Predict the structure.
Amino acid sequence: MNPVETIIKKRNNNPLSPTEIEYFVKSYINNSIPEYQMSAMLMAIFLNGMQPDEVYKLTEIYINSGDTVKFPAEWKTVDKHSTGGVGDKITLTLAPIVAACGAKIPMISGRGLGHTGGTLDKLESINGFRTDYSKQDFSKFIEKSGIAIISQSKELVPADKRIYALRDVSGTVESLPLITASIMSKKIAEGAQNLVIDLKVGSGAFIKKLDTAKELAELLITVGEKFGQKIAVVFSCMNSPLGEYIGNALEIKETVNYLKGKHLPDIDILTKELAIHMLLLSGKARDKKEAIEKIENAISSGEALNKFRELIIQQGGDAGFIENTDLLPQAKHSRQIFAKCSGWIHEIDSQAIGYALVEVSAGRRQLDSVLNYSSGARLLRKVGDRLQEGDLLGEIYFNDESNIDEICDKIVNSYSIKDSFCEPDSIIIESINKWISL
Amino acid sequence: MNPVETIIKKRNNNPLSPTEIEYFVKSYINNSIPEYQMSAMLMAIFLNGMQPDEVYKLTEIYINSGDTVKFPAEWKTVDKHSTGGVGDKITLTLAPIVAACGAKIPMISGRGLGHTGGTLDKLESINGFRTDYSKQDFSKFIEKSGIAIISQSKELVPADKRIYALRDVSGTVESLPLITASIMSKKIAEGAQNLVIDLKVGSGAFIKKLDTAKELAELLITVGEKFGQKIAVVFSCMNSPLGEYIGNALEIKETVNYLKGKHLPDIDILTKELAIHMLLLSGKARDKKEAIEKIENAISSGEALNKFRELIIQQGGDAGFIENTDLLPQAKHSRQIFAKCSGWIHEIDSQAIGYALVEVSAGRRQLDSVLNYSSGARLLRKVGDRLQEGDLLGEIYFNDESNIDEICDKIVNSYSIKDSFCEPDSIIIESINKWISL
């Protein structure tokens, strides 16, 4: 097969055959197709798209490029995937609740890059917590506690890993077919039999419009179904950072607060909506009413907090911070920030906030950047809030004082405050779960 | 500047600024942008296009990447460029006529690759003929004889050379903006103040439709104009191979026959149409009538043949073949081919013929393939011809008998003969010359 002819076929907007997709990806992985041909192909896919059958085949090749984990069918394992947002610690508030209700949750998670944080980084701000467990340990954890959050080994979907790195540097990240294959291959390879997707929509998400989000959701569901995976999708609003805290240890603190009963509306509503779908898909609740009862009970009884503690201890962490969050890494300095003018918040540039916090080492600029777990921000205001000039917007936590004026300015300037009324957002836009009648 | 942001800008169908184009191309040439980013950019340009201003800037950067040749303005130099066809020896029939009429024709030409032949290869089938002359020699030749056909030095538009090589392997060749920059940069760098483009349209050309050809013509004219170059475009039909002979020495023989007065209709009409525009643009004729008179006279008086001889001798060639074409390289074997059925020729797959003749070494499979100058074919029939089963189609000339049955079969099968009438093509579809009232 001639790689140029295959590129030209996609360039001319013709679907590739399963053989062509397999040949192209495998040849790239074994270095017989060079990067410059793969990047031309990726751009052609970005601009001309792929049909569901092509995405399915691509996903299959990604999965078969490496190791996979399999759990007994009767476990009805369930995972959650978020398409990424600033302050998104929902994996941490959600998984202990759902595991406390008896579901089995195999989670292979990632580190943060750019303006969004990674679940593993947040957990690693806990003293002793480890994520580098083997496939065997992973299975044992799931069997025993129902929950494990580990890092992706080199052996899991290596094809996606290499192609993702190339997408990142060739301007081809935000392609629905490529995103679908990337998400689904990981979630199927890790052994999730059911999946709930938190699909972020809004100014702070990489998908700005609901139409696009629905197109992605449909593709994810179609591909998942072909692998026998049941998928529910929750479209959630990402116009304001989630919760109050952004930063690794700060988000662990907020998680503990939540599991202890301090319920900020956005975190609370989103956590429970996702938990409902996870319980329904995993068969731990028959209907929405039962799901809600179980969720409320798991929190109020302290079982969710206990499950969180079990997770921390199971993976080598010192759980003392659960009783006293001051034991988490603490920043040396903090500075309050204030509204520059009066009015309603019409927009918050979450991405700009995320990048500003990278400068206090709350996130990574490059793959090898060193994080400072204690730094970050507490931001109190959301889109739709009314402010007076000089009102407290929040507080920035940092360890190195250089540039802090500039960083605070960037964050203050990411709030667009106007003289006209602005309606607050609803955190849940819509949910799709074709497997269960809600 | 961040290369990924620049790729994303073009990917999102936004025009690039002159600074961005310059940065991107220069960084690629100095190896600070890798091939995989350039190929993603090329695919984005292929699929989203470029505005004329962007093409102009790209052309300018190509030109400035290397050496240029300049001639006095009063010379009104004129060149011809063909977008490529099978059996296209028109440069050789045309240039001596136009030079004999007093025009100055600086030609920097190419070698053949794939199914089309290159003018330099044809000339190099002449014993002793050289094409590797310096810029200084080139200028001296033009001053003295009015004509020179040399090869592109490494110093001429190196940016196009490198990017063309990448386009070839990334499926991004047939892009109108990229084709325009590639043609125009070379033609401006070589010092052509006027240019006539033979824009091939049809099944044997890379442009199949007149609409696309007109779009390319408009872009070529607009960009040329910005550099002060005057351009005429002749849209010619490329449904049948041009003339009768295909192959390096065979086309030299056909050129000599033509200049001696043996006028096959397609070669004759196309040569004269292009010559008219070259004489008008270079100011050697005031109107079409005068141009035709001068052309006819140049041929019938033998001045065109003399100019051809002057060109051969000037560049080191042994001109004896002009009196006796048997002195050109002769193939060891020949085989006649015949029509398989009766009817009208509806289509000739010139590309398939070109590739079949690559197998007798008349063309190059790869850049380093060795040519056999004597091999090729004489093909007598054109689209619209009526045939009886068993009629002579032509003759194949070859030196190595292996595979010759298969090669002959391929050529015979490239004629689509049907039972219904098919109108012959007109070689000239249309001409544009906005500089002269015809």
